[in-house]
Amino acid sequence: MRYELYYWPMIQGRGEYVRLALEEAGANYVDVVRGKAGMGAMTKMLEAKKGLPPFAPPFLKAGAMVIGQTANILFYLGARHGLAPKTEAARLKLNDLQLTIADFVMEVHDTHHPIGVSLYYEDQKGAAKLRTREFWNERVPKFLGYFEKLLKASDGAYITGRKMTYVDLSLFQIVEGLRYAFPKRMKKFEREIPGLIGLHDRVAGRPNIEAYLASDRRIPFNEQGIFRRYKALDKGM
Q1: Does the pTM of the predicted model rise above 0.70?
Q2: Check: CATH 3.60.10.10 for 88-206+226-233?
Q3: Per-residue DSSP letters for 55-122?
């Protein structure tokens, strides 16, 4: 099967979690909107008058199925490409972890857009500074501390044990994104999460991921995506 991934062509965003899974699996896929006429094809699917069209990208076309929402896509791919446990209970728990990551991703986004997504960052700088302060004082330790604890309790190199899952790929992306958006704050905080930093490095060294990161398929971080670098928000801790 050749998968069709639909997501914005200029940012990593939420689609990157899906790309990482597809790349690690060595799956045959096309990043549709990065190709000619791709935006029109995505718009057509979003505005379909029949059936149950997806609410927003990312969504994945797998044969006749169209699967929306990042965690839902990963739940589907994980079971089919060796990126999830075999038992239903374990797969559901993994989905639980991915949904927790989705909550954290929203918190990251809200550091630079705490009032509204329709406003520019420049229109909400004061609120962004307050939100970022609370984010680093309260939310980062809570979320990343939780995953650090899970890693310490694991009997292997990855979050659920010896075998890597799509959640490990997503945690890699979280570390990468925070390093980009908040280099000063993250440099100081990393001493609190040695397990997650080790996990990040193990994922980065996997052959398929290493090749992907070095390719032009990996869109660079920029100030249009979820992880954005603004000096005013990265004053250290």
Answers
A1: yes
A2: no
A3: SSS-EEEETTEEEESHHHHHHHHHHHTT-S-SSHHHHHHHHHHHHHHHHHHHHHHHHH-SS-TTS-GG
